[in-house]
Structure formats: C-alpha cells, structure tokens
Amino acid sequence: MASAENLVRQRLTGLVPSELLDDPEQAASRHAAAVWSCLTEPGDGVAGTLVAALGPRTALSVALEDGTDSVQDPNVVAARRRWLPRLGTVDDAFRGAQRAGVRLLTAEDDEWPNALDDLGPHAPRCLWVRGDLGTLSSRTPAVALVGARAATGYGEHVAMEMAAELAGSGITVVSGGAYGIDGMAHRAAIAAGGRTLAFLAGGVDRAYPAGHADLLARIAAGPGAVAAEVPCGTTPTKWRFLQRNRLIAAAAGATVVVEAGWRSGSLNTAGHAAALGRALGAVPGPVTSAASAGCHRLLREYDARCVTGADDVRELLGLTGAAVSGDDSFTGDRTRVLDALSVRVGRSAEEIARRSGFAPDDAQALLGMLELDGSAHRTADGWRRRPA
Amino acid sequence: MASAENLVRQRLTGLVPSELLDDPEQAASRHAAAVWSCLTEPGDGVAGTLVAALGPRTALSVALEDGTDSVQDPNVVAARRRWLPRLGTVDDAFRGAQRAGVRLLTAEDDEWPNALDDLGPHAPRCLWVRGDLGTLSSRTPAVALVGARAATGYGEHVAMEMAAELAGSGITVVSGGAYGIDGMAHRAAIAAGGRTLAFLAGGVDRAYPAGHADLLARIAAGPGAVAAEVPCGTTPTKWRFLQRNRLIAAAAGATVVVEAGWRSGSLNTAGHAAALGRALGAVPGPVTSAASAGCHRLLREYDARCVTGADDVRELLGLTGAAVSGDDSFTGDRTRVLDALSVRVGRSAEEIARRSGFAPDDAQALLGMLELDGSAHRTADGWRRRPA
User: Is A313 on the interface with B (CB under 8 A)?
Assistant: First the structure.
C-alpha cells in the first residue's frame, strides 16, 4: 500500500530522523504510536494493554478495523467507540507538530525515558518534544522538583537554591512548567547551565501558562526539553494535569515537593511517586505557613523524607554513601571527670574522684587519658582542665 | 537502734507526710533511697541493680558495711569506693531540703512516676520535689516539649501555642526549665492554667538558670512541680544535664523537639525518648533556619514524627480516636491496675485494689490478665509490674 506509506512519510517528515523515513517498518511503528496518542486520553489502560500485546501498529489495525468479528475483547469493543471519533484530529496533530518544530519520541528511540515504562499499561505510547531529546533519557539522574503555584518567597528561594545546585552538578531537574515552584526550579536550572525538563498537560505547541511562553522557549532552546504525551493542539484539562503528574513522577528517580498547601496539585505528583516506588521527599517549612501544610502532610501521612537541601536530594537518588555514625562509651566517663575539673583551681585526684563519683583508681586512669588528649593537665596544686 | 531511728526521723521531718515518720520501716526505706541519691551520680547502674535486688535499705547496709566478706560482687566492691567518699554530704542534703521546703518522693509513694521505672537499673532512687507531688504521677498524660535555649521568635511562638493548648486540655507539659523553648513551654502551660513539670540537673533548692528563679518559683507554686534526682546543694554539671534529659524523656509519653540547632542538647533528650520506645516528634521549620536544623535531623535520622500542632501531639500520645485499637475499656482498666503496681515493691492484691480504685475481685481478675500478658508477676512479697 504505497499510498499508506506515503502518508506515514509525509506525516513524520521533520518529526523523526530522516533516515528512519526510508525504513517503512520503523516509520509505520512510530506513526502508529503517534496516532494512538491522538486517539486516546492519557493513561488509557485498554489501549496500553492492546499496544503492549500487539505492538502499536498491529494494535492500531485492530482498533481501526471495521469487521466486528475480529475484535472480541469487550473492553476493546467499548473503547473503539471513544477512539474512532478522534480519527479526524490526527492530520492536524501531525501538521501542528511540524509547524512548531516538535520531535516525536517513541519506545524504540535511544532517548526514550525507560523509566516511564514502570507505568505499565498506563505508560504513554509516545512523547511530543520541543528541545533536546537527550534530556528525556533515563540514563541521566533526574529529580522532580514540584510545588504550589501560590508559592511564598521562602518556597521560591529554596526551589531556586536546590535546583541550581542539583542541575549544576549534572542532575536533570524535572517539573511541570507552572507558576511558583515549578517555574523557579526550571529558571534556576537554566541559570546554572544545567538540564531541565518540563512536562506539559496540553500540547507542546502552545505555552501553558501563557505567561511562561518565554520560559518554555528558553527551556526548549536547551540544554533541556518541553514534552507532552498529548499531541499538538490539545488543550490542558484537569484530567490531563493529573495524568501529566504521573509522567513527572515516573521520569524522575525522586520527587521532592518544595512547598505545597494542604490540597496542592503537587501532592498528586507525590502520590504517583509513592505508588511507583520512587523516592519521595518534602521540604519542611514553618508550621505557621499554610503554604507548607501539604509538605508536612507528606512527611506525616506518606512517609516522605525530610529534605533540607541538595545533599538530601542526592541521598534520595542514591548518589551518596550512607552516613556514618560512631559511639564511644568512654565519652560519658570523660565528661564526668571533665565536669569535676576546674580551669582555675587545681584539685587532687581524690577530690576529682569524689566530685565525679568515680573510685580513686578509675578517676586516676581517666585523668591520665584526659592528659593524653590534652583536655587536662597537672599543675603544682593539682589537676586542672585546659581552657577549650 | 533508737538513735538511728531518731536520725532518720530528724532528717525526714518536713520531707515526707508526718504519719510516715511514725512507721520506722517506711521511714527507713525512704531515708535509704534519699541517701542513695546523695552517694551516687545519676544513672549509676551498680547502685540501681543493688537497690532493685535488695531494696534501698538493705542495699544501703551492704554498701556501708565495712566487713569485706559480706560484699562479693566486684562491681559493688569497686563502686563502694566512689560512694563512701560522699557520705559526708548527706546531712547537708537533708538540711538543705528542709530549708527549701522540698518534698521527698520515692517508689513507694502514690505520686511516684511509674514511667521512670522503664529506666531499669538507671532509674532514680528518689526525687526531690518543690511543688505539687501529684504533678509527677504517671496517671496524667504528659508530653515533653523541649528545644534550644537559642530559640527564634518562630520557635517560641510554636512552643507557646502548643504548650498552652495541651496544658489547657489536661496534659502535663514536661520540660527542663532552661531559657528559650523550655521556658516558653512552662510559661504558656502556667498561663493556660495547666500543669507543668520542670526537671532540673542540679538541686531544686537553687534556680538554674538563675534568671529563671521566678519562673521556677511560679511552677512550684502550682499547679506544677520542680523536681530533681540529685539532692539539694548539688551543682548542675554537663553529665547531670545529660542524665536529667533521660528523666524528661522517661516521664513523658512523648517527647517533641520544638526547635533545635544541629547539636542542641534537646537532641539528647530525643535520643533517650527513642531508646525508651517513647513516641518522638519534631516541629519542622524553614530549612534556611539553623535553629530548626536539629528538628529536621530528627525527622531524617531518628524517624521522628512531623508535629505541626497540638492535635499531632495528642496523636503521638495515643489520645485520639483513630489511634485507639482493641478493647478500650479493658485498656483503661489495665492502665489503672498497672499504675498501681511497682517494679520494685511487691504489693498485695488488696493493696492494688485500693490504689487502683477497683473492687478486690475485679482487681484480682485484672491482675490475672496482666499476668497472662506478661505485664505483671507474683513475687514472694506480692504483685509487681515487670519492667518494660
């Protein structure tokens, strides 16, 4: 079917590397994945299961086939009735992507974020990307820094410090492109010369929020990327925001909520991270600040780790060695003898023993050790403590 | 030995209820516990083990006896050499207590905080108390609110709000009488008309810090108490502060660190609470505030619960509906009988019935159930509680 091949080639031109267009199998598979993203809402498990079982191309043939006897799964039969009405949007989606210089990324590509596959049947079939595809790769450690749009100066300050230090040290900062914490995290990552990745709830050809058009363009200018699983021309809806949150949580090795009110949408991202078994952190704030109430809720109810700075985030990502602790029973005895010593007045060993509650021999032995480490010294009128 | 009885009577006059002075056995036992507190540093495990095995009076005879053949335990032989040099301080300790209007509390007293017995051999032998002895009883729920001397306005605000609400609702606020968080917790509890308890590291006859002389006097004026395990005339030392912290942690059902720097002494109290299996909470603050770094450390390293207000503290204490499990009415009855039992002193079932306010048959039945679950056991001289 040469005309079908031509349609695929025409639609994918500019969206995938040109050498791929010369391989009809590769092109058809990528095209099918992209069409699936046009036909389905994010997280459509029926589509995900079908594609996982048959591959995007065969699954799409099944979905589009008119003969009712070839489709027996009642879920698929029902789902076709929500998929097929969207066939008319497919052409516009590809054209919109070409106009906006968008790239198409699918599971076959090297840069595909394999971490998203942890979403199982709810994983996206493809991503529409503006910017550097390498930003998506799960080979680079990534942290999601998210939080409330209505952030305070405190929250924005912490987001900025943390994002700058992490991005500056080679960790990709993932967020949602929103006002408040998200925007500050992206901005600081860019300023630090690091990588940042924004997942949008609508098509990447349109800026949401509109006030972040410049910021999103700067992210896409690199080193960074703006990505969405919905095709160009798609408006963000509440459902799509919630589903977009699962991409942020899945793409990052850890999610840290920097500042969030009691019902902040970023708690949804945190919930996805916890459900996926990703490390979850929350930055505490004053208990008197409503803007931190959601973070405290995560610490209390979701067993989130308390995150106070970039080092804690690296620990969440497993990028540091474990903390070392040591203890010394000598320390307690030492303290008791030191308490009994004076800097100004010399005291006999017997006096020290009485004051510290040790037997004279033991006190003598401890004094000897304190003398060795320089904390105590003998003078003409007895033992004295050395000034700190 | 009438002269020994007279000495005991003379020393205890004013320190214990006068009717006790007419019972030589009772008086001698309390006197011995008080003498032990003069001879030992806080937490002396050899003394604690000896007293637990023989009772304070017999243990003291053993310790004071000159014949070497009667004492064989090498730990005791060694310990006698640190205990005996302090015999000369005993008279002054009793006289100082009488002058300061201090009361003596021992494990035989109704008001004795049984929760301290969880310290095992490191439990204090007695407490020297200014104020209302009832404040000490473990029958009232108690929370330790502790923190840094160098508190910020934020920390003091939170301490004040939390202490006022908790004390106002019948929960005893325990702290260490220091500047900063401790002082604010005591003050707010008093202002709310609630009970507050200050454990001091030195003798209760002297105010430490001196600037809190008025506050400590107000606490003692009630409803509240100032208590120490060291006798009157004892200076606070670093060791005694650290040991005092274990009393705060043990006496309270939960310890909450309100504000603490990275190396604050209140982290030591938190460590004792954790070691004792007490609930541990920490109030978060801005990660940009060094004064909250210790709280965040507790959240990260000690698995402390994030505490944002009085309700969270009640949950830590198990005082909220959600936290209660099992047969409530039995739990309450069980607690009452447990409160009437001592680890160190055997009591008859009749005595337990009287102390717990149950009919003898009911007390007997509850004791049977406590025996079954291992919380209580029968000994030659009656029922005892098993150490936690």
Answer: no
Say whether B285 and A283 touch across the interface (CB within 8 A).
no
- Read off the pLDDT of residues B316-352 as tens digits, 9 standing for 90 and up: 999 974 333 334 455 667 777 888 888 888 888 888 8
The residue-averaged pLDDT of A276-298 equals 97
**Test the B interface: residue of A257, A287, A289, A355 with most B CBs within 10 Å:** A287
Question: Is A284–B288 a contact, with Cβ atoms under 8 angstroms apart?
Answer: no
Residue B360 has pLDDT above 80, yes or no: no
pLDDT digits (tens, 9 = 90+) for B210-256: 999 999 999 999 899 999 999 999 999 999 999 999 999 999 999 99
CA atoms within 13 A on the CB side of B368: 6
Judged by CB atoms closer than 8 Å, whether chains meet at A357 and B237 is answered as no
At A388, the pLDDT band (50, 70, 90 cuts) reads: low
Q: Tell me: the pLDDT tens digits for B35-52?
A: 999 999 999 999 999 999
SS3 A262: coil
**Percent of chain B having pLDDT more than 90?**
75
User: Looking at per-residue confidence, does B199 or B386 come out higher?
Assistant: B199
User: Which residues of chain B are within 8 Å of residue A284 when distances are taken between CB atoms?
Assistant: 284-287, 292, 296, 299, 306
Pairwise CA distance, residues A205 & B388, whole Å: 65
Backbone phi and psi for residue B146, each to the nearest 5 degrees, phi listed first: -130, 170
Closest-CA distance of chain A to residue B110, Å: 31
Question: ipTM for the complex?
Answer: 0.77
* Residues B306 and A299 sit within 8 Å (Cβ to Cβ): yes
For residue B386, the model assigns a pLDDT of: 84
CA distances from A85 to A30, A41, A82 (A): 21, 12, 6
Question: Which residue of chain A comes nearest to B290, CA vs CA?
Answer: A308
Of A186, A145, A197, A113, which Cα lies nearest the Cα of A312?
A: A145
Q: Which of B47, B5, B48 is nearest to B27 (CA)?
A: B5
Q: Is there a contact between B296 and A285 if contact means CB atoms under 8 Å apart? A: no
- pLDDT at position A370, please? 85
What is the arithmetic mean of pLDDT over B265-281?
95
Pairing of strands A254-259, A279-282: parallel
Structure tokens at A189: 């990552």
Cβ B314 vs Cβ B168: under 8 Å: no
- What is the rounded CA–CA span in Å between residue A210 and residue A178? 10
- Distance of alpha carbon A295 from the chain centroid: 15
- Minimal CA separation from A229 to chain B, in Å: 35
Task: Say if B154 is an interface residue toward chain A (CB within 8 Å).
Answer: yes
| pLDDT at residue number B41 | 95
Q: What are the chain B neighbours of A308 within 8 Å (beta carbons)? A: 287, 293, 296, 300
Mutating which of B239, B272, B296 best tests the A interface, going by the most A Cβ atoms within 10 A?
B239
